[in-house]
Amino acid sequence: MKKLVLTGAIVLSLISTGAMAKDTLRLLTWKGYAPAKLVKDFEAQTGVDVKITYSNNEEMIAKLRATRGGGFDLAQPSQDRISFVQAKYPVYQPIDFSRVNTAQLTSSMVDAVKKNAMVDGKSYAVPFCYGTTGMIVNKKLAPEANDWSDLWNPKYEGKISYRLKRPLLIATAFGMGEDPFALYGDKAAYQALMKRVEAKLIEGKKLVKNYWTSGDTQVAIIKSGDANVISGWDGKGWSLHETNPDIDFLAPKSGALGWIDTFAIPAKSKNLDAAYKWINFMLEPKNAAYFTNQEGYGTASAGAIEFFNEKTKANFSRSFSKADIDNIKWHPPVPDGFETIEAKVLDRIKAAK
Amino acid sequence: MKKKRSSTFYLLMAPVLLWLILLIVIPHLDMFFRSFRFESDNGAMVFSLNNYLSFFEDQIYWLTFVKTALYSIGVTFLAFVVTFPVAFYLTKVVAKKYSSFMVLLLLIPIWIGELVTIYGWMILLSDNGVINNFLVGVGLIDSPIVMLYTNFSMTIGLLYMSMLFMIIPMMSALESLDDSLIEAASDLGASKWTIFRQIIIPYTTPGIASGGIIVFMLVIGDYVAPNILGGKSSLWFTEQIYNKFLATFNWNEGAAFGFLLLMLSSGIIWLALRLTGQKLEKVGS
Predict the structure, then answer these.
(1) Inter-chain touch B60–A340, beta carbons under 8 Å
(2) Cβ neighbours of B19 (radius 10 Å)
(3) Is A205:A349 a contact under the CB 8 Å cutoff?
(4) Domain count within chain A
(5) What are the chain A neighbours of B245 within 8 Å (beta carbons)?
(6) Number of neighbouring beta carbons within 10 Å of residue A214
(7) What does the radius of gyration of chain A's CA atoms come to, in whole angstroms?
(8) Same structural domain for residues A228 and A178?
(9) Which domain holds residue A269?
(10) Helix, strand or coil for residue B49?
(11) ipTM of the predicted structure?
(12) pTM of the predicted model as reported, rounded to 2 decimal places
């Protein structure tokens, strides 16, 4: 009996020291945001071991909330999902901008994110990459589709798909000629707008093939030909374009929705050094360009453009004219309580006949 | 005289108790207390039944639950219809040495994991998928039949992942059924239908009931198949619980809905056992 306890204690201490001995960075991020080559370079350069957990905005918040900001050293939420979370459940710690090499970043983006992720005068995020939600269209089969309103155009009956989540409600409002972001300060007016959006989407439901639910199902539904006109992310659309030139991403006439993903440091991060090292490493022009060439998403690193390959440059110029870029609707921070309104709307659309 | 338990007994008991307390009792208690907390208008957390009330007040919630429950009952019944012949064949018809190999084959989908098998079904059922391509190719149909993203594909997905849990308890019940009972009935002139209804079914009812409970619980608590294969109107109750936790960050209402799912589905099972005159102790063994 005594022996058993002793062995148990030894084994336990071995396990815990084994994990502690090496310098590790526990990263909570999105698929594709930590390319294997860059992780290897970073580990070779700094000796820090990178441990990656893949997630999305909703799960990131839930995970950090469950541990009160523990379990991870660095997270990558979208910029519009930080301030209200931080105000309600303090799961992040302020960014020490003196430790971030802001000289290598696009300053307008740093300022915008700083402002949007501000709580009590302290800012909680550094921009990492940006992209847009627009439409992915099979141009051979639906040559004229070019706006959000085509997601309820009877012409494409049975060949339409989108993700039934909050960006789609916003997109529908823009497609109806409204400006939902202008109503972020007025809850009652926003609720009324959501009612109109709900009616529009329920009316158009019979035209929809299916609602896609993840990056994988998004790709699958248009690749297989089950749908021709879908909502989608620029990076996904461009990688589809490589395998099938008929399929491409396009910025809807009434405005693509722009998102910025960031670096934010959880409140109980155990390795701040490594976290800041990783932030600065990933935003070095060469590394940032590698990420963009690989995944297709734009980067906050200012000098990266020099290292873009032809394919990346072609993607951006093919899908975005100057006017399209000016027309991108950047997500402002979501006000507290709005997601409850939207969730009910989404449930009712899903349950409708 | 009371027997004194040895220290070995307690040592062996410890893992079981730790498992029960740490992984089942404490999380459930936490959820239970959480489900009664409600954020009042001024932002304070107060004790309230509002989380439970919202289920009954908002039509969409209880309607979704009713739909989910009815669907789960239907799938459970279908699972029985589909698997009974298989279980009967494996225990009574085929030779023992082959049957264990066949059971092994039945297990294969479980090794792969639910998500992968579901993606497999997507490839088979899609408009341009394997089945439609074949049917169009041999000229049976002109244009593809829409199978994916319908209630049909969802049912297939749910059946496929839960079937095995129906087969195994039925097989163990059928195995103990003495063949001579069937032979005797046959000698006395009973028709096949009578033998099935009067002998086989009553004998295997405990197996059917325990398989039915497992399948029902698996289906009503599933998230992946309705979400991926289910199409645009397949709002499953688990999806609403998921949304409470992840989309609206309302863990308290999510916890209340989780408890409602647990209580209502247990209630349905209790009712089903009462109606068929089964005892839980007998079914559970």
Answers:
(1) no
(2) 11
(3) yes
(4) 2
(5) 62
(6) 13
(7) 22
(8) yes
(9) 2-130+260-319
(10) coil
(11) 0.76
(12) 0.82
